[in-house]
Each structure stands twice: as C-alpha cells, then as structure tokens.
Amino acid sequence: MRRVRQISREEHLAFIAEQPSVSPLQCPSWGEVKAGWRAESVGWDDGSGRLVGAGLVLHRRLPVLGRTLAYLPEGPSLPWEQVAEDVAGWLVPLVGHLRRGGAFAVRMGPPVEVERWEAATLKAAVAAGTARRLGDVPPDATTPWVAGLREGLAAQGWRPPAEDGDGHGFSAGQPRHVFQLPLAGRSLDEVRAGLNQLWRRNVKKAEKGGVVVREGGAEDLPAFHALYVHTAERDGFVPRPLGYFEGMWRAMRAEDPRRLRLFLAEHEGEPLAAATLVTVGDHATYSYGASASHRRELRPSNAVQWRMVEEAHAAGCAVYDLRGISDTLDAQDPLFGLVQFKLGTGGHALAYLGEWDLPLHRLLHRAFETYLARR
C-alpha cells in the first residue's frame, strides 16, 4: 500500500537522479530560491521503503491563522499514466499528509502532455489564416489516457484554478503551453538544418558581425541583471531584484554545478543579450532572458539561444525547452511575436494538463483566490 511521507533532501535528490528528468521547480534547490515559502520534500513509499514518486511542496502561510497553501509547481513527479488508473490511490495519501500539516488547499501542476503540434503544422495554419488559437488546429499527437486522469481528478474534488482573464492561456501559476526543440537522435547539423531560414540567417549574421557568446559566472550576474531590468522596462513587466538571481545561483549550483548556467552575447565587450540555462537530467530549459534595445541588427538573442542549444546537445540532452508561449496564432496579437520566434527553431508546441486545485477549507480557499485576483 502506498503512503506519502516527508523525505530528506538526499532521498529526494537520489530519486531525481534515477529519472530521465523532472522540472527544475521540483528540485530541492527551488525551495531555497522561493523566499516566503516553506519547502518540504515528500515521497511515495510503496510499502517496502522504495520511493515510487516524489515532489517538492511549497507552503505559503496565511497570516495569523497559520494554515498554508500547499503548492507543487510542475509536480509531483509520478508515473502519471498509472495515476490515471487509480487517482485516489495515489493522491489521497498526499492530501492526507498535507492536511495533517495544516494545508487549507493543495495546488499541483501535473507534468502531463495533453497535445502536441509540430512547427510545420502551426506554420501552415498561420499562413492559411485558418486559426486564431492553438486549439483551433488539430494536434499532431494526443495523450489517450488524459481524459481518464481528468475524470479521476474531478471525482476527487480537484478542479483547474480560474484563468487570469487575459484569454491567452496564462494562469496564476506555470504556463500551460510551451515550446520545445527535440535533440535526441539528431546531430547538431540536423538541428541547425531544422531552423527556419530567418533563424539560420540571424545566427550567421551574429557570427559575422562579431558577436561572441561566452559562459559567465557569479560576477556577471549584475551585467545580466542590468539587461534584464532594461528588458522589463521595455516590455512592461516587473523585474525581480538582483538578490533573487544571486540566491538562485547559490542554491541551484550548490545542488549541481551544471544545474544553472549563464550565457552572455557580447559585441566588442559590451553585453547585448544574456540568458540562463537550467539542466535537470536530459532536459535543458531556457529560464530567463534579457536583451539591449540597440545593436539588435547583430541578432545577439539568436546567438545566445543557439549557443545554449549547442551546450544542451553537447551534454546529451534530449530536449531544449524554450518554455512558455501564449496560445495565440493571430499575427496581429502582440504576443504572437514570441510564438513566431520560437516556431523558427522548428520544434513543437505542447499543451500540458495545467494546474489543479483541491480546496480543503473552502472559505479560506475562496478568500485566498480573491486575494490573488486583487493582487
């Protein structure tokens, strides 16, 4: 009989090492990055002491009351096809453990792929003008057992949280739609040949224009952050402070020196673009990126992305993950530019199952949702 118990950091890391990959947000180091949350590693024990699943739980404490929202971002790491056949058997022990710890609600983001669209399919739909959203395009692949998982979750009281209302598939948590470039079984020349003509031209233009991409260290974080703050001002989002990235650097690299890396694209010694690369197992993920508003004709952003693809390929990664996209295919939509940039790599778009909530104390959960909506 499965049971869920708190596990040590060492047990959690040993479990992760046995998996092809897990989300970086499910590594113990992520709990150290997220100030204001209390982190707990939990494991599914098959009854013989062997772990068959694990997760990082982030607890957000309510003032005064002391109850917590228990959040498993892009997790837990479970054999989800098996979970679909017995949702209660896998998740009831988790809920019981978290309820005993004072949780008023649980939120999780099962890393389950629902649908996949190849770049060629989406480019054809855009060219034909026949679709405004990813959902308007028949997917190239679907996961057949997802319907059973959804039904099982709903039967246990789980439900998707409310969208934030922007109409583009972004929720309060992690993105439901991402773009990935497959690397497994492909030579680097084959990966490069899969880039569209504009991408190949821009990478070459950066090389000929004298853009040099180098790997940076902790001492380069201020230069990265200056570009990042400029990017935030230009694109209209609130930047994280330098201390956030310094804390991320310390925590993730202490866990594994290759977990987090920084790359800077420079021209004559001036940083023009920079990005961070996170690797867990065979999965490399583009995390944060930034760029200057001048000398963009040198295409430093393409250069730094291509360098990270090269590094991921050299490390034997199966996937280079460009992370979130909106679901828009409307060329007039301001968010389509990011989709178009990532489409140019020749990879594929994925729709994940998304995040699900289980209220354990409905009044507190409703109050917390109201707080999030007003924040």
From TrEMBL:
Signal peptide: none
GO molecular function: aminoacyltransferase activity
Keywords linked to the UniProt accession: Acyltransferase, Cell shape, Cell wall biogenesis/degradation, Peptidoglycan synthesis, Transferase
A Pfam family per the record: FemAB
Keyword flag Electron transport: no
A Gene Ontology biological process term: regulation of cell shape
Gene3D superfamilies: 3.40.630.30
Matches recorded under PANTHER family: LIPID II:GLYCINE GLYCYLTRANSFERASE
Family: Belongs to the FemABX family.
Protein's recorded name: Peptidoglycan bridge formation glycyltransferase FemA/FemB family protein
